[in-house]
Every structure is written in C-alpha cells, then in structure tokens.
C-alpha cells in the first residue's frame, strides 16, 4: 500500500524528503511532481527497481527509454559523451525547464542503460525533484504517468493517481494538481537541436 506524502514546493519538509530518499535507497518506487506531469521514479543504480519500473510500463528493461532526472548539469559527464561548448550553452539556456534532451551516452552509464547509444536528460524546474536528487546524491530514473482517458493524456490529480498505483509503488508525493502537458523532447545527439516531441517547452 503506497504511503501518501503531502509535500508542497513552497516549503518541502525535510523529514518527508528524507523518507523519500530512504525509500529510493531501499529499492522503492515513487510518484513525484515535476514542472510538467506527475512521474514514476526510482533509484537509477538499483537494477531491481529499474526492472519493476519497466514491468509497470509493460516493456523490457533493455527497450526502456527512461529519462534521467538531474538537479543541475553537473551530472552530465557521468552519463554522456563530451559535448561541444555550443551544446552546453544551449542546455544551460533551457534548463531547468520542461525539456528532455537526448544526448550521446557514454560507457559509464548505470547497468540498466548499458547498450544505449543515447540517453534522455531532464532538469525539471520544480523544487521537489531537484531536492530529491540533491539529497539522494545522484539522479533518478523517470517516466511520465499516462492516463487511460482518451482525451486527457496525462493524469493530473494526485489522489486519483494514488488510487490507481497504491499497490504498485511505495510513495506518492501529493503536491497538488499537476500539469497535463509533457516535456518537449529535443534530440541533441548530432549537435544540432531537433524537436522529437513538442510539449510544454518552447525551443
């Protein structure tokens, strides 16, 4: 049964954030808010948690394209090949923000990402995921929560999300209503920005 934690961006309680960190370190799955939609997240270095995340999305882990949530650009070199100054400037001018940037992966990526030529990086403009990553000490893996509704693509009500996922995740962070527009996906693997999916962010 998922535990619901009410954490608000204006004043995130440290003890509740610490509970989220403990859950992630123990291989748990969380649902958290972002600057776009609510998302599922887990410890990027916990292969079992990554497998659970893939099962929830009904895909094989090796086929999964889970974004990596960072709190700033300092983790880039951990996961990506060296990037040009112009690309770095482009990233810096758009982050934090509602974008997922596709970059070339390096050989040091976590086990769940081995064999991937590219990797998606997110730095949400939202204090809660930023604080989680900062306290955890490394990024988390993430995937957006889709809605079964044909009209509304993404779930926005954390209470309804909690009802749906209460037996599948360990923690649901209720931060009020979320957005229903996903991030804009921009492929930078060639060095030139190419919009793959238009979402909330404007390039």
TrEMBL record:
Domain of life where this protein originates: Bacteria
GO MF annotation list: double-stranded RNA binding
Gene3D superfamilies attached to this UniProt entry: DHBP synthase
Entries under Pfam families matching the protein: Sua5_yciO_yrdC
Ranges for domain YrdC-like: 14-201
Record-linked NCBIfam families: L-threonylcarbamoyladenylate synthase
Protein name: Sua5/YciO/YrdC/YwlC family protein
Taxonomy of the source species: Bacteria, Pseudomonadati, Bacteroidota, Flavobacteriia, Flavobacteriales
